[in-house]
């Protein structure tokens, strides 16, 4: 149903108040099309918004919160975390928004007309003030973690891939539930840095046993670093056998520590998360960490040669690859990016809980581990469908946050995606990126392209029950 009309156009003073008291506290966002089969993002064109999948980075917008009567909702304190911001959008606290473009004008739905075989449609333009045409009610779709924006006349902000425009259009046959499948739903990606106030991965690393670290990454502003992990990993190495894994809660019961010891070497893999971060995603993060380590250390010669061919530095690229997969798991944990994985994650969570509840019952544990392995394969297979979009989304995010030009990360996108498509996507026409899509290369290994079985949870032991260090399994 169309939302109530708020009345006459607001005067300039109201808009000025919004700029001073609210806009500074509301984050900028990117808007990506939610439909899995149709890639695309919203770009501010000269006279009207456009849809682009390549050669143009997404524009930055602000969703100015409005009440149903059209007055601005004052945001008195800065919104600092993605979860806080998306929670406000999902909860209905902001029933309506005005979409402010980076040119200082609001997206406006103009007069609707009926197009044969297409239904009602309306062009979108820009206006300097907020009136009926600039107000959009917000609808949240829990199944995809996406949002639809419905104008006062009942039409939805829509992606037209034939004309590469973003008009407003009615839902097919009046069925509002089909907005996602018909290019009328958007993933909102707030441009907010990682914060210690939200659930996230705090640290990932690989060490040479109890010795020095071979690779590591700490969260932005986090308190967990290599020096924190040094005494813990020494204890774990004394008590964890080859190929075994464990996890425990530490540091005042607000952090979970996950450890996996390599089957053949002294290498120790570790992931530290906040207390409510998904155990499933922590385990998948461990698998991804192992894949990155194998690529840069066990297949070092091949990887170094590919890096030279692509003019990429080893340490910098390895760090950026770690940043990418940590970011992707953080975003999935916040349920805003890869919601198609959610049913698999929930099944895996149930089996992990069953396994932990039956420590000591070998038969039940074996059955649970086998289920986890099969579901982990399915997770990686489904993740393959979203990895390219996630890489692009991550690079847009990094470019926006760091103020860098996208051309400077063209080779890196190609490397992560596993092929030259990443370069074309960034407009590097004619550039050569000799990255081969194969197991162990880029996100193919991280998000489903590799053939390795899952590692975490495969041979789990409870930390309290660990005897002295065990021998390598035969």
Structure described in brief:
The chain has helices spanning 12-21, 82-91, 226-239, 279-298, 300-309, 314-333, 342-357, 362-383, 387-402, 410-417, 421-425, 442-446; strands at residues 29-33, 41-44, 49-52, 62-66, 96-100, 106-109, 113-115, 119-122, 124-127, 136-141, 146-151, 156-157, 168-169, 186-190, 201-208, 213-218, 245-250, 255-261, 267-274. It is an alpha+beta fold.
How would you characterize the overall build of this protein?
- With 474 residues, the chain is of the alpha+beta class.
- 33% of the residues lie in helices and 20% in strands.
- It has twelve helices and 19 strands.
- The strands form six sheets. The chain has a five-stranded antiparallel sheet, sandwiched between helices.
- A hairpin with a 3-residue loop joins strand 7 (113-115) and strand 8.
Kindly list the characteristics that best describe this protein:
single chain, about 475 residues, four-stranded antiparallel beta sheet, 12 helices
Adjacency order of strands in the biggest sheet:
16-15-19-18-17
Number of strands: 19
Integer-rounded radius of gyration: 24 Å
Q: Let me know the largest β-sheet.
A: 5 strands, antiparallel
Overall structural class, as computed from helix and strand content, comes to alpha+beta
Distance between the termini: 66 Å
Question: Proportion of β residues?
Answer: 15-25%
Stretches with pLDDT under 50, minimum 5 residues: 1-17, 404-411, 417-453
Mean pLDDT over all positions: 74
Percent helix: 25-40%
Number of helices: 12
Shape: elongated
């Amino acid at each position: 149903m169309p939302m109530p009309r708020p009345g006459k156009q607001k005067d300039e003073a109201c808009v000025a108040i919004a700029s001073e008291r609210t806009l500074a506290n509301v984050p900028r966002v990117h808007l990506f099309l939610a439909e899995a089969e149709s890639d695309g993002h919203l770009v501010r064109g000269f006279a009207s918004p456009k849809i682009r999948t390549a050669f143009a980075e997404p524009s930055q917008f602000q969703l100015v919160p409005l009440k149903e009567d059209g007055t601005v909702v004052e945001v008195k304190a800065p919104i600092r975390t993605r979860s806080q911001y998306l929670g406000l959008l999902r909860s209905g606290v902001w029933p309506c928004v005005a979409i402010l473009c980076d040119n200082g004008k609001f997206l406006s739905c103009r007069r609707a007309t009926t197009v044969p075989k297409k239904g009602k449609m309306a062009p979108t333009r820009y206006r300097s003030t907020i009136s009926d045409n600039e107000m959009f009610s917000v609808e949240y779709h829990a199944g995809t973690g996406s949002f639809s924006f419905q104008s006062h006349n009942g039409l939805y902000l829509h992606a037209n891939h034939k004309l590469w425009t973003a008009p407003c259009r009615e839902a097919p046959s009046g069925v509002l539930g089909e907005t996602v499948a018909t290019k009328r739903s958007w993933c909102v990606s707030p441009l907010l840095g990682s914060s210690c106030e939200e659930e996230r991965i705090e640290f990932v690393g690989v060490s040479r046993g109890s010795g020095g670290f071979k690779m590591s990454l700490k969260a932005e502003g986090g308190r967990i670093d290599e020096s924190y992990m040094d005494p813990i990993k020494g204890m774990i190495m004394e008590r964890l056998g080859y190929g075994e894994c464990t996890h425990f809660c530490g540091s005042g019961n607000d952090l979970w520590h996950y450890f996996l010891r390599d089957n053949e070497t002294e290498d120790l893999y570790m992931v530290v998360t906040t207390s409510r971060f998904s155990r499933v995603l922590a385990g998948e993060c461990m698998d991804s960490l192992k894949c990155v380590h194998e690529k840069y250390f066990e297949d070092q010669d091949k990887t170094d040669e590919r890096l030279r061919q692509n003019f990429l530095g080893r340490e910098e690229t390895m760090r950026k690859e770690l940043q990418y997969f940590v970011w992707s798991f953080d975003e999935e944990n916040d349920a805003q990016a890869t919601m198609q994985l959610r049913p698999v994650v929930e099944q895996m969570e149930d089996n992990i809980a069953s396994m932990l509840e039956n420590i000591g019952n070998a038969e039940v544990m074996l059955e649970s581990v086998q289920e986890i392995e099969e579901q982990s394969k399915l997770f990686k297979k489904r993740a393959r469908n979203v990895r390219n979009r996630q890489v692009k989304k991550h690079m847009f995010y990094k470019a926006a946050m760091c103020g860098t030009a996208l051309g400077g990360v063209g080779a890196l996108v190609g490397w992560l995606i596993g092929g030259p498509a990443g370069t074309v996507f960034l407009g590097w026409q004619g550039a050569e990126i000799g990255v081969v899509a194969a197991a162990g290369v880029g996100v193919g290994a991280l998000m489903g392209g590799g053939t390795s079985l899952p590692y975490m949870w495969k041979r789990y032991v409870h930390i309290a029950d660990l005897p002295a260090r065990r021998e390598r399994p035969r």
